[in-house]
Design goal:
The chain is an alpha+beta fold and 238 residues long. It is built from six helices and seven strands. It has a five-stranded mixed β-sheet with strand order 2-4-5-7-6, with helices on one face. Strands 1-3 form a two-stranded antiparallel sheet. The termini are far apart. The structure holds adenosine-5'-diphosphate. Adenosine-5'-diphosphate binds next to helix 4 and helix 6.
């Protein structure tokens, strides 16, 4: 007699079905807008004065689709465990400096200040994945912050390894969602998707990328006070 445990297989099947249905839904929404707007333009019923606004609409919605497809491609590469890049020594402090330079304008527009603390610390990692981790965590710390808030990014070379901490003074995450934020397409407040840009895939990419490089991620958060994301890697000994 052969006993086969199908629970895990069924669970994977279920997740795959849910993912396909979510992707279809998320892609259909912007595409429907693009179709509607371009249809009106093609029919010639858009006033000349409105052409710019309609064009901007198409640009924004197609930009959303591109981000979504980019994120899905990253996730599928991680799923296949076949990242096409070699590991090397990556200094997370330098990487954080670069991310801050790229995000400073966005933070300024939201009245959020970015601070970098700690010092140089290298890990043995894949540069584009390290960038993905640092960028996504800092981007979220800005997006879910409050006007006049701040973000502290800290890189530390400790005995047990290298730690990256991204701490914000934002809206926080309700306790019951602390684990769910790492699920694909999960967003605490769905109405955010109207006002805060994002695909709901960022943290699932971060979690996947961290474990791909043998690290761990932990979240501490208090609603209305802020969130702290702690990523731990073993130190680069090469
Ligand atoms: P999104 O594209 O929506 O930002 P993520 O996967 O990066 O997707 O995050 C999932 C959800 O987790 C977000 O929609 C938000 O509700 C919550 N979240 C993530 N980071 C933070 C943070 N620093 N503060 C508060 N909420 C956060």
């Amino acid at each position: 007699m052969i006993i086969v445990d199908v629970t895990e297989k069924e669970q994977r099947e279920k997740l795959r079905r849910e993912f396909t249905s979510n992707v279809s839904h998320e892609l259909k929404t912007p595409l429907t807008t693009i179709y509607g707007v371009s249809d009106m333009m093609a029919e010639g019923i858009v006033k000349q004065a409105d052409v710019k606004t309609f064009g901007r609409n198409i640009k924004e919605e197609s930009g959303r689709m591109i981000s979504l497809i980019d994120d899905i491609i990253k996730l599928s590469k991680l799923d296949e465990n076949s990242f096409p890049e070699e590991s090397c020594s990556v200094d997370l402090f330098d990487m954080a400096k670069d991310v801050i330079d790229r995000l400073n304008i966005k933070a300024g527009e939201r009245g959020v200040k970015l601070f970098l603390e700690g010092g140089h610390a290298s890990v043995n990692g894949i540069p584009s994945l390290c960038d993905e981790i640092v960028y996504n965590l800092c981007d979220n710390a800005i997006k879910y912050n409050k006007e006049g808030g701040s973000v502290i990014i800290r890189v530390e070379d400790l005995n047990e390894g290298v730690t990256l901490t991204v701490e914000d003074t934002g809206i926080g995450i309700p306790f019951e969602y602390r684990d769910r934020i790492f699920e694909r397409f999960f967003r605490v407040d769905e109405s955010h998707s109207q006002t805060v840009d994002g695909t709901g895939l960022g943290l699932s990419i971060v979690k996947h990328a961290v474990s791909y490089m043998g690290g761990t991620i932990e979240v501490e958060s208090a609603e209305g006070v802020g969130t702290k994301m702690i990523v731990r890697f073993s130190r680069d000994r090469s």
